[in-house]
Amino acid sequence: MDTSLSWIKAYVPDLSCSAQEYTDAMTLSGTKVEGYKEFDKNLDKIIVGKINKIEKHPDADKLVVCQVQIDEEGTEVQIVTGAPNVKEGQKVPVVLEGGHVASSHKDGQSEDGFKIKKGKLRGVESYGMMCSIEELGSNSNMYPDADPDGIYILSDNPEYASAAVGSDAIGLLGLHDVVFEYEITSNRVDCFGVLGIAREAAATFGKKFVPPVVTGTGNSEDVNNYIKVEVENPELCPRYTARVVKNIKLAPSPEWMQRRLASVGIRPINNIVDITNYVMEEYAQPMHAYDLDTIEDRKIIVRKAAEGEKFTTLDGQERELDDTMLMICDGKKPIGIAGIMGGENSMITDNVTTMLFEAATFNGTNIRLSGKKLGMRTDAQAKFEKGLDPNNAMEAMNRACQLVEELGAGEVVGGAVDVYPVKKEPVVIPYDAGKINALLGTDIPEEEMIKYFETIDLIVDRENKTVTVPTWRQDLERIADLAEEVARFYGYDKIPVTLPKSSATTGGLTDKLKMEKAARTVAEAYGFCEGMTYSFESPKVYDKLCLGEDDMLRKSIRISNPLGEDYSVMRTSPLGGMLYSLANNYNRRNKNVRLYEIANVYIPKELPLTELPDERTMLAFGMYGEGDFFTMKGVIETIIKKLGLDGIAEYKPGTSRNYFHPGRQAEVIYNGKEIAYIGEVHPVVQKNFEIGERVYIAVIDLKTVMEMPSCIVKYKGVPKFPAITRDISLSMKKDVTAGEVEEVIRKKAGKILESYELFDIYEGSQLLKGYKSLAYKIVFRAQDRTLTDDEAGKAMDKIISSLAEKEVVLRQ
Amino acid sequence: MKDKLKKIMDTAIEQIDATEQLDKLNDIKVVFLGKKGELTSLLKSMKDLAPEDRPKAGQMVNEARTKIEGMLEAKKKEFEKAVLEEKLANEKIDVTLPGTKLPEGHRHPSNITLEEVENIFIGMGYKVVEGPEIEKDYYNFEALNIPADHPAKDEQDTFYITQDILLRTQTSSVQVHEMEKGELPIRMIAPGRVFRSDEMDATHSPTFHQIEGLVVDKGITFADLKGTLQEFAKKLFGEETKIKFRPHHFQFTEPSAEVDVSCFKCGGKGCRFCKGSGWVEILGCGMVHPHVLEMSGIDPEEYSGFAFGVGLERIALFKYEIDDMRLLYENDTRFLKQF
To answer: ∠ CA(A211), CA(A212), CA(A216), 5° rounding?
Structure first.
């Protein structure tokens, strides 16, 4: 939404402020000004000059030498120009030596404008410049009488012809003006019109708001003899007003109207079109004009379209409609898509003699959805979508007819058609100064609040302590809304600054967030950098991971309106994101990359989704370069311990994960449940992601970890009694795992087992083929006494005999 | 006797002084102090002296022994010191050689920023909670006073899964979950991932993070909201930070405000980060709309509250002067290792 300052001043005549003051004050009272453009920013020393004499340039055919009078006293300066349209006796804008213009004939517009110096043109001295409208920073939309190819001849315009020579030409042209750009929030439908903003400006600056006075219009005829209106769907069209104008005289609209429209970016067309646009800007009420002679049966019917109905809008496009969309029709055919665009078949042409003005309100949601389905977005639609005030429609209609009469654009027929079955009544809200102050934390007197209410045209009933809210302020419904009105005119900046005095609360992280923090610390200590990837990915990832057809990871949730196929499914594992991130690094030749991510995955309970999925937080680790499977395993072991699981985690060799090396993957089992998995990425998968080195990945399922009995760290005492250490070297077939041996040690050593450690692995010539040897250091200790050799010996015997059952024997 | 002793002593001193090797000292010790050493034999020869002279002679011999022992010890220390010095001299290293490379882990810049924010609010008694990222329409919109077909719904470019299950567009949804628990008072922040269907570019991402804040209690005021956010801004950006509240509109708060902080790069003078204005918009906030309280089963006549929502990346990008949001999701270690 844009307005010029002069347009605002038309309704707030006492307003006097700079562009910056206006910007700051309006923003702080709730009408945010995003920026502004000053028309006279680069204009300086530009006066009305009079060309007294024109002579040929001695050395140039296309140049002339002018003697230009620059004050009432008759002072002349010599100016050389190449403009073809100058004549003796004309008044023109002249920039004097040392002055500024916004653009130059040669270089176009410039941010800082151009300074005019005296100079010589083909040897003849020139002390200034006569200006075109572009050099004055404007254009022929705003100044339609300006010659597009030459100097702006002021004296050709009766309005300027009598201007005093030497007077300020910028002021004369109304260029001491500013256009503001606003960000209007969707609740303030009224501020999508100049009048709404002017009302806010008046309230903000404490000045009087003077809206246009709309007088009775129309001749002695009755509009009902010209047109009948039927609304079949009043729920979609709460109000439809119509008036008729005959004997239309199409002509350009007056310059002041063209200039206001052009200043906010609307191209002037002719008086009728300009009036509809002007009223739309002023009242935030879109209007439409139909050629009455094209309307069959002299009848307007507002109805829903038929499914698949085709219709050509006034931009010449054929549109296909459906049965939710509202159409404006005559007795035989559709003539417009309600609230969006009129039809080619009924549009105003140069031959129009009688027309129908429409000012209606439509259901905002319906308009929005229709526009979306049709792929259209017109200015009118943008306003209707917000849900307009039906009580504003007739005022706008009468204002348009008043302008028709004022501009002599036609003869307005008496009376108006108004289909308005359910009148919208103003809301009455009780106010309570105490409650408002309690909510704001202020101490504002009730009288001051009432003053604020009245400045924005709320009707205050002091006796009953209520305000009646005009229907244009549909955002005001209850006392909290009134509190905001009070706050913004009192000033947000004046509200005190306090801290909640309420009951003390204990803050902190949840257990889950604490765990994430602990995992981060360990991961970073081991050289892993934290990454972040999107929650959605391409379903192609499943094939890259070589997942089987029935793999659970393929059962992912689809987004119905994704950004594209590559972002269409919610991830069921962090693998894809991790591998892409590693590949990204590999591709950029980064060496020894270690990444981790705390990533949520989304596991549907069933597809399609009928309830929310299981969101599980995964701690994912990935690396290539230095380190191997056991580096990764070490990281996982430490993290699991730091997460509070200090029992034994079993690493069960796995084969089920297709994306891992079949002989280098493990499930991490704790308390009988899989809490993590770890593996070397399968060479095929590695290739699919275009990574040229071995990749190791581990994933911890934090949700499962959290289900484990929590481990509260307790001090166990430093051992007081000596330990007994025994080393054994065991020989076994290669396929016996260390895990199996260790399980026996744990089970058979009894309570006195303190720890065990694998310190040597041997495969070689001293053993039978297919055999290996593992050597363990086993430490026994009792907490309450000195252990005897005998006790340790018995424990060792149990271990050895139990191992023998698995054909694991002491190495000879 | 006396002469003999003097001779032995002189010889011993001479020999000790002349020794150049540690193991030779032991030989000297044996020669003079050993069982068959010279002093021992002198002592043995005392039996030839007159009994009255013996104690004196014995004392003299012992003194001589102590003296030789002391000299031997001193000489030994001298040798040991020289050996150590030589060893240390040989062990000299070039300390300017590079240190052993240890793998470096780094936290994501967004999460460093998040932790700072969390710590500020934890210090003010807020708990940190989470809510689902795939959310019901009700929690993301309706319970926040954004009914079906409300234009505000369109403004947010929502990703939908089904008609009423979506990817949350705002962490404000967590407010509702927290209020529905019915445990008052509430002081919480809810950081988390949100989704909007924006194409990614330098300033947009279809995934970003917000931090929602909510306080509900008896007697909570707009002034409390101002105070809380001023405290937050000063702790995050420095004591000098100024804060500006501008009226705004959100469906789930009334009154509502947008908050600018004085630009922490230029201190408010105007620079390229604040586009010359001296102010940077960092969050939206307001008093919880009474209808929102009602929908979550809280009586607005008795309780009031405030809520705010901060864009995490917005702060992180400003703080670290990162000019392209895409860097946050590329996970290039050359980027990540800078934080």
So the answer is: 135
**Residues of B with CB below 8 A from A601's CB?**
none
- Please judge whether A498 and B217 are an interchain contact, meaning their C-beta atoms are less than 8 angstroms apart: no
| Measured CA distances, A311 to A15, A294, A317, A322, A343 (Å) | 48, 15, 8, 11, 8
User: CB distance from A527 to chain B under 8 Å?
Assistant: yes
DSSP string covering B43-107: HHGGGGS-TTTHHHHHHHHHHHHHHHHHHHHHHHHHHHHHHHHHHHHHT---TTSPPPP------
Residue B311 has pLDDT above 90, yes or no: yes
Whole-angstrom distance, CA of residue A106 vs CA of residue A93: 18
Arithmetic mean of pLDDT, A192-216: 95
Residues of A in contact with B248 (CB under 8 A): 30, 32, 185
Question: pLDDT per residue over A59-85, tens digit each?
Answer: 988 999 999 999 999 999 999 999 889
Q: What is d(CA A329, CA A306) in angstroms, rounded to the nearest whole number?
A: 12
Please check the confidence at residue A89 and state whether its pLDDT lies above 90.
Answer: yes
Interface test with B, best of A499, A526, A703, A706 (most B CBs within 10 A): A499
Rounded Cα distance between A318 and A245, Å, is 29
What does the DSSP assignment read for A47-74? EEEEEEEEEEETTEEEEEEEEEE-STT-
Q: How many residues does chain A have?
A: 812
Of A533, A588, A537, nearest to A559 by C-alpha is A537
Mean pLDDT of B330-338: 95
Q: Using one digit for the tens of pLDDT, what is the confidence trace for A533-546? A: 999 999 999 999 99
Asked if A642 contacts A665 with a C-beta cutoff of 8 angstroms, the reply is no
As a whole number, mean pLDDT of residues A256-284 equals 93
Suggest the residue from B306, B333, B334 to mutate for an interface test with chain A (most A CBs closer than 10 A).
Answer: B333
pTM given for the model: 0.85
A326: CB partners within 8 A, 6+ apart: A233, A236, A237, A302, A303, A304, A305, A337, A338, A339, A362, A363, A366, A367, A370
For residue A760, the 8-state DSSP code is: E
Q: Dihedrals φ, ψ of B282, to 5°?
A: -120, -20
What is the DSSP track for B252-288?
TEEEEEEEEEE-TTTTTS--TTTTTSSEEEEEEEEEE
Q: Are strands A299-304 and A228-231 parallel, antiparallel or unpaired?
A: parallel
What span, in angstroms and rounded, lies between the C-alpha atoms of B298 and A398? 47
Q: How many CB atoms lie within 10 A of CB A764?
A: 8
Residues 6+ apart with CB under 8 A from A279: A285, A287, A396, A399, A400, A403
| pLDDT range class, residue B249, cuts 50, 70, 90 | very high
Average of per-residue pLDDT values in chain A: 93
Query: Which of B159, B162, B201, B215 has the most A C-beta neighbours within 10 Å, making it the best mutation to test the interface with A?
Result: B159
Q: For residue range B90-143, list pLDDT tens digits in order.
A: 999 988 999 988 888 999 999 999 999 999 999 999 999 999 999 999 999 999
Chain A residues with CB-CB distance to B329 below 8 A: 532-534
pLDDT at A111: 79
Composition of chain A by helix, strand, coil, percent to 5: 30, 30, 40
Q: Do A499 and B207 touch (CB under 8 A)?
A: no
CB contact under 8 A, B161 and A535: no
Tens of pLDDT, residues A467-481: 999 999 999 999 999
Supply the DSSP string of A540-564, one letter for each residue: HHHHHTT--TT-GGG--PBPSS-SS
Cα–Cα distance measured from residue B152 to residue B251, given in angstroms and rounded to the nearest whole number:
8
Partners of B310 in the β-ladder: B211, B283
Ramachandran assignment for A349, one of left (phi > 0), alpha (psi -120 to 50 degrees), beta (any other): beta
Chain B residues within 8 A of A536 when measuring between CB atoms: 206-207
